[in-house]
Amino acid sequence: MARSSSRSTTLAFAAVTTLFFAWGFITSLIDPLVASVKGIFTLTNLQAQAAAFAFFIAYGLVSFPAAALLSRAKSIPTILIALGLMIAGCLVMLAAANLAVFTLVLLGLFILASGITILQVAANPLAAALGNPKYSHLRLTLSQTFNSFGTFLGPLLGAHLFLAGIEVKDGTAVTDAARSDALAGIDSAYLWICGLIAALALFFWLSRRVVTEAAPPVASTAGLFSALNSRWALFGGLAIFLYVGAEVAIGTQMALLLNDNSVWGHSDAAFGVPVLGYLMGSDGVPGVSLQEAGKAVALYWLGAMVGRAIGSALLAMVRAHLLLALFTAIASAMCFYVFAVGGVTAGFVALSIGLFNSIMFPVIFTLTLERSTGTVESTSGLLCTAIVGGALLPLLVGAVSDGNGYAFALIVPAACYLALCVFAFLAGRAPILRREATTSVH
To answer: What are the transmembrane regions (predicted)?
Structure first.
């Protein structure tokens, strides 16, 4: 009986971990999707960034309602509601691809992201709770690793399906055949995602008793807005806003930046780098096409995955606020390099920014929880709401790139990282109110 229970708990944890992978994969598909819709619908950079806006605005609108839903409905019903929303979002994306309507793309992304937001609120504590409490941190770290793996694979598949034959440079036009192929790729991707989510929903429904028994108690909604009265919770919310906004803006602009003639558009240098060249897969035409550039974006997210492993080791030796100050300063300097120097080397520098993004979210999260006078649940909810920066700052970066070019637009994330460096030093001087804070990864 004990062995059967252990096996059931392991299967439940595997399913929860699959959720982490799924939302990482779906989120990173936004990067090639922004480049694709720019070409398919002949949009400006600002208009194309509306795709990122539609996705990440859900965090600002749904995080607190998701916490209230979890408190009332408990874990399994909340997860099933989240998966149902994600399926609905995929179905709208299928309609958008078949009807070639950009506003439907935006609606589908918003519904999909609303489901993901609710899912994150429910799945993080579940991943930690499904098994021996002694290994809860190990399980959550393992689940987060699969999340990072999903963000690495998303741009590769998305670029393959969404960007074949798509051109966005001045003086170029997208052929009807390329437009049809890209829309068919979007249709295929979200059809398969829809099937995966439906299978997961069925599994959770069938195993609801096992998962419910292992689920942690859900906090009440009392004091849900107490963080709004905490100066440090508000500071931390602003920091998360700036960090996520910078990370998403760079990711969604990366393929367009690398494809630009002033960076890699007329250069084959990237194909000489073993791993990078293999991932991009040269089409034999001189220079880097948009599809090849889109595949290279996977290394931006792989850098974040590798950086988390390195950063975890460094955090055992270096105080968290000092490591955050160092990483944000380096990221800011790299953005300034792309802005001020440009050229072929700027492409390699831009891709490497992901390595230094790696520890920012969990460190900002814990630094804030330790110093906030609000409840842990309220502070956590506020910080998750602040992920809405991923909706707003990419719009600003898109507007700047329309007028001044992709490399110039990195001045915006450079300023964001500089502000985060200031936050890190201020955190080092602020009193710590609690030590039991735990990390979370978006």
So the answer is: 12-30, 50-70, 77-96, 102-126, 146-166, 189-211, 232-258, 298-315, 322-340, 346-369, 381-400, 406-427
